[in-house]
Amino acid sequence: MFRKYLRTIRDAAGWRFLLALAVIVVVGLSEGAGLLLLVPLLQAAGVDTQQGSVAGLSRLVARGFAAVHIPVTVVGALLVYGVVVTIQAFLQEAQTLVSAMVQQSIVVSLRTRLYEAMLGANWLFLSRLRSSDLSHALTGEIDRVGAATDQIMSLAAGALMTLVYIAFALRVSALMTLAVMACGGILLVLLGRRSRVSHEAGEAYSRVSTALYAAAHDHLAGAKAAKSYGVEGRCMRIFNDVVHELGRITVRSTHHYARSRAWFTIGSVTTLSVLVLVAIEGLALPTASLLLLVFLFFRLMPRLAAWQQGAQMAKHMLPSLEVVLDLERRCRAAAEPPVSSAKPISLTREVRLDHVSFRYDPAAAFALEDVSLRLAGGTTTAIVGPSGAGKSTVADLVLGLLAPASGAVLIDDQALDANHMAAWRAQIGYVAQDAFLFHDTIRANLRWACPDASDADLDRALHLAAA
Questions:
Q1: What SS3 class is residue 321?
Q2: Residue range(s) defining the domain that contains residue 394
């Protein structure tokens, strides 16, 4: 799943992703420069920095200060430190901005791709899906992918900072550093199971949040029916069940994060205490080396803990990417037939169904079977029958929303196929059984069908509809 995510971020963010990585590297280098300034501060505090492995770092800092003509004193070290922190602040601002650009690149890319796939899918496929599931994927699920992106960018920055600290620690004492890394690795492995639990909890969160979205959508859409039957209490019970289930999943996930952090903190403090004791009693490290190691290790372990927790949170959110990509794949698999050459079509005589058969599912009975029907142009035709007789199916076939399993829909003897579909639909005025209005003005709703309509055209349409 993570490889699939990296491909997604590469395709969506492009150069922004590379820029974000470059900024993260520069921020890491500035962190390293700040760490080097500990050496002259220790020296100014009276600690001997000319013994052991710290002596090499001390000489490196001295050459750097000499290159910019700054004396190696407390004032000089503080001056350089102020400059480094200022540069670091601007770099971190840039890192935040570029990370946000990467995050929004992925969100925008996924939303536009998924919406395009939905619009391109055939009506039969879309009619089988709940509209609330589509809306939730476009909004809530993709927002979670964006949050996962933010976590992963933070993980990348944290990993680089960790490497900087490890590099310095290795320079001071390779043996001690390797021991700390081994203990940290063991802790991460032991907590690995909780990462798997986070992924499972993320899948459950996606499933139940989709159910919550559907419940809210369906109950509000059916509020009139619920009130007319006096079943508001039943709606409330169903909604409450879903809300409380989502709450339980969230609390369980938070508990996993907190428990992992607690065990990692306990393990890291125990490890550091033992290793510092070994360094003092067994290795007899110089004071400067010991102080640097203690500082580096106590800065390193919280970063590892934050990295481990961030990885858990990312795993919790990444199942949303699976939901979005799977829905996009299914929509594209159900795309309407491609248009090889768009052609005009016009109606002057008749619309005819010629031995048309259609069923909504290959395993189901035919909704229409071997139906032949003539709808004369310039006349009004009413199709009457009981519910389920196929009246709406005939209308959808004439509109081109459905394609016959056999037979053909003919417009003046021209078969209605993919190449003629756009021209045909542009000529159709369709009033659905359940009228739908966008949350906008009447003028804006009328102009959905004909954006260039004048006010006179709108008045005429309203008059014809007796509105």
A1: helix
A2: 346-430
In single-letter form, the type of residue at position 408 comes to A
Task: Say what percent of the chain tops pLDDT 70.
Answer: 86
Give per-residue pLDDT as tens, 90-132.
888 888 888 888 888 889 999 999 999 999 999 989 988 888 8
- Please indicate, yes or no, whether residues 291 and 415 belong to a single structural domain of this protein: no
Q: Read off the tokens for 327.
A: 């829905």
Encoded tokens for 137: 């994927």
Closest CA to 160 of 268, 32, 258: 32
| CATH at 89 | 1.20.1560.10
CB proximity list for 242: less than 8 A, separation 6 or greater: 208, 211, 212, 215
Mean pLDDT of 265-279: 75
Instruction: Give the integer Cα–Cα distance in Å for 186 and 356.
Output: 68
- Are residue 65 and residue 187 in the same domain, yes or no? yes
Order of all β-strands in the sheet with 414-415: 368-376, 350-358, 406-411, 414-415
Q: Which amino acid is at 36?
A: L
Query: Which pair of structure tokens corresponds to residue 132?
Result: 């609330």
d(CA 250, CA 187): 25
Q: Compute the distance between CA of residue 77 and CA of residue 83 in angstroms, rounded to an integer.
A: 10
- Does residue 272 have a pLDDT over 90? no
Q: How many helices (H) and strands (E) does the chain have?
A: 18, 4
- The pLDDT score that the predictor gives to residue 333 is 93
Tokens of 263: 């065990």
Tens digits of residue pLDDT in 18-68: 788 788 878 777 777 776 677 776 666 666 666 656 666 677 777 777 777
Contacts of 93 (CB under 8 A, 6+ apart): none
